[in-house]
């Protein structure tokens, strides 16, 4: 393992944190109940009076590194018009629980409790990949609190056989070898599926640094999260529509984690107020590969008063 002062990941993390603090956010922790504590980035309490009139927006990360790594390209874009809240889901970063619950429904309940504890009555939500599962359940269970929903690259309509197909594409035996890479080779496989650009030129020492710094924490609990998913257990999509909710689906046309045909089906399943936007030449992380287009699409949707 590289020492902190020689670690590119650790040094870049300093820059990312500065991006967040420059956007008026601060790191905070809230104890939700006797079992669960969530760490999050939210509006700095020192400036709360200046942000009261702005609508609130929650960004929910996918499986992988903590939230600040996944939303760096969005936080600076959205903070001028929104009060931005970016939680680390349970068992990511400093968020933890003593509860035995491991489902994405539990994650959704934790996010909803966080917003309630933060004094936010209504908010819009964006979820990417695993975070899209969580965002869907937040909107499903608390429709009176959620204004608009953005589901990005998230196979909420996944079936039991979809993981098997994904493993065949990845040429791996277990889903945790893909979603929780423990070696440079496994991480390179994940990046190769998640991004449309070539990644075979990434130095091995940098891949190892990513694995050690971003994927080694709470591995046992995260494996339990993968096994605790309620979505994808059946041969048919196990989800209810959101008929009265405005929903935007954003997808990369080259997504190899959740292929584009899943997005087309999901649009029909979620209800008549759902629309789909496809970003060309991107894969599973269009918010990273083409942040300008992703941000503009989402902002247009969120700020459309119609």
TrEMBL record:
Pfam hit, one: Abhydrolase_1
Family annotation (SUPFAM superfamilies): alpha/beta-Hydrolases
Signal peptide: none
AB hydrolase-1 domain ranges (all copies): 55-291
Alphabetized PANTHER family for the sequence: SI:DKEY-122A22.2
Listed name of the protein: AB hydrolase-1 domain-containing protein
């Amino acid at each position: 393992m590289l020492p902190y002062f020689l670690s590119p990941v650790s040094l870049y993390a300093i820059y990312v944190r500065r991006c967040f603090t420059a956007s008026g956010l601060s790191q905070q922790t809230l104890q939700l109940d006797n079992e669960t504590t969530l760490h999050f980035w939210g509006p700095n309490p020192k400036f709360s009076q200046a942000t009261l009139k702005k609508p609130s927006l929650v960004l929910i990360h996918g499986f992988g590194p903590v939230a600040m790594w996944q939303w760096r390209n969005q936080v600076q874009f959205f903070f001028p018009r929104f009060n931005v809240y970016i939680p680390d889901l349970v068992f990511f970063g400093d968020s933890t629980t003593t509860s035995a619950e491991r489902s994405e429904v539990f994650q959704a309940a934790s996010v909803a409790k966080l917003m309630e504890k933060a004094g936010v009555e209504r908010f819009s939500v964006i979820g990417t990949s695993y975070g899209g599962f969580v965002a869907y359940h937040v909107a499903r269970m608390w429709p009176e609190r959620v204004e608009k929903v953005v589901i990005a690259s998230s196979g909420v309509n996944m079936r039991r056989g979809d993981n098997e197909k994904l493993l065949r594409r990845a040429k791996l035996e277990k889903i945790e070898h893909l979603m929780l890479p423990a070696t440079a080779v496994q991480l390179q496989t994940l990046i190769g599926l998640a991004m449309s650009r070539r990644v075979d030129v990434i130095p091995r020492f940098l891949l190892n640094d990513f694995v050690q710094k971003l994927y080694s924490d709470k591995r046992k609990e995260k494996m339990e999260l993968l096994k605790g998913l309620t979505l994808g257990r059946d041969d048919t999509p196990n989800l209810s529509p959101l008929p009265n909710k405005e929903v935007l689906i954003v997808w990369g046309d080259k997504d190899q984690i959740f292929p584009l045909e899943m997005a087309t089906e999901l649009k029909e399943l979620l209800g008549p107020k759902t629309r789909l936007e496809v970003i060309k030449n991107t894969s599973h992380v269009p918010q990273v590969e083409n942040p300008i287009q992703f941000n503009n699409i989402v902002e247009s949707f969120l700020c459309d008063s119609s």
